[in-house]
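User: Quick one: structure for sequence A, then sequence B.

Assistant: Sequence A:
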Amino acid sequence: MKRTLSTLPMAIACALVISMASLTWAPQARALTTPEIVESSLSTQCLDYQVIGFCAWLYCTAFGCTVRTSMRVKHYIPELVVSSYENTGDNPWSEVAMLSPPTGNATGGGRATEEADSRHSNTRFKNTDAIGHPGGAVFYRMLSSFGYSCDSEALPYTPYFLSTLDALAWRSSLPEMAYPEALTPGMREMGSVGDLWSPIYPRSGFVSQPHDYKAAATTAQRAADVVTRNGQPHVYMPLAPTDNPNAGKWAPDPVKEGDPDTHKWQRLEPNMSMSCSIFPDGGERHQLQDPGNYAWALWRPYRCCAVRGQELLYFTGE
């Protein structure tokens, strides 16, 4: 006689039903959306708006010259969304994930562990993307309420760094594995004694770090280190503006680990934060199920003043 579900023992039938339901209702990985990122740019703590001095300008006409002054300000601007994630093509910022599909030279991610009585090593690989922050108009609308403000050259949604396109350097560590920064202990390392996260060099996707959040943060820091400099041995588009005092603008120095005068990080995924800090940031308590996908906004400090003459004579403030 043909057996049907109704003829099976009740316990087996219930187990099948529960199993099918769990497949149907299994929670999907959470995606970070553009509206959420835009909303995060309204952080006044990250903005850190300050009046730091004034600029003195020489203003000349046919009738003579005078000195005019303008207020000099400093504040941070969200320039990039830096995502660090496990599997190629799985950028947690859902609307831009299509920019980094698997390619012939970049087809996966993952980790390798060595198990003994204790874990001796844990090498993780993270894909990393640095894409122009979408906050734009909303951020500058908020900023206008503070008075005079600076602007950034960063373009929204622009891919400044995609690790899939930089597969040779990001996956092989060449040529940076032979750089002095990579060979000298204590040189260019993120963290401090007792809380050392990882060296910055070689700037690749491989990190010897058992903690998934710290590994992801390390690759985000490495990508920012590359993008904010010119002439690096990687495939990327630089975001490295220079000072232009005669236009009343002083750009930040390239990102340097542990230096808030060059950058700050705002955690976007997981558990979006409305505050900023530098790594180490204590964010390891927010680690996702291992392994996970993470994202941060990179904020960088600008100084500027309104141009009120043909030549800048001097300025005050840091």
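Sequence B:
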Amino acid sequence: MSNQVTPSASRMAAYYTLPTSVIESSNAVDFICEYLWGLEGIESVETILDGEIGSEKPQGLIVIFDPEKTQPEDWLTPWPDAWSAHSELSKNKPLLGCVKTIMPEDWESSWKQFWHQTAVSETLWICPSWETPADISPGACVITLDPGNAFGTGAHETTRLMLQSMENLSSELTASGFNWSDKQVLDVGTGSGILAIYAALRGCRSVRAIDNDSVAVRVCRENAALNHVDSYITVDDLPLYDLCLTRYDLIVANILAEVILELLPEMLLRLEPGGTVLFSGLIEKTYPAVEQAMTKAGLEQIHKKQLGDWFLLHGKSPY
């Protein structure tokens, strides 16, 4: 159900170190990510970011792949002809020496090498459980996270879009007298639980998080406990259509467009009049279909946001 991917015996990961010249290029990383996402056997691509807020630079990519369908050498040789005109990609080919394969049994330990605290904004940080937060502004919200075997750290553009939009929503509603403790939130495809945990940390006392991956369910529960909000989050692997028709004030879904389209009727049945939806996991080719479905369903589009190649749609139901 979620964008997050659980490594297993049938999946492997690779860490792709980006050359400095590629990092400095404005669009070379986007070229690489778009290419990788289009290959058979690639299940997820997550950018590892570093640097000051607002000027972070990608340092590498974590790529989850099915070794029966593809291998790292297949991704980069032959180098795509379409990139021959791109100076940074052309002169750095084939970059095979930059790829380190991660075996499934080494997955958890690999995060400690590849992932460190991440700034989503000036007032929101994601910090791995094995680090002590440092140089974080007083009063900032800090989400402690251990991805374990559930892929998803908050570094990926789709997750950052969601967190930034939830933070903006939180600020706007709080300023207008909105009381988060009275509201209910549904996180569809929770993965590591990061969105559900953010909602609880902001004051929601009734958060439902669902995922069809039993490992993600376990990891979400563990992360909720790490952040001391486990008493406010109910996590399970029930399909959306099996949930009782509780009405939610906010529904978030960081999942693929085709899954959003499939589940949209069920989500709308569970959305309060005047409630808000945030949909991410969308790319340029797929977000128009979700936009059209939202309009047809009577949702007002509040805004569309883009980060890299990814899009988020913010909608509101009529009263």
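The chain is about 30% helix and 30% strand. Residues 157-175 form the longest helix (19 residues).

User: Thanks, that's what I needed.
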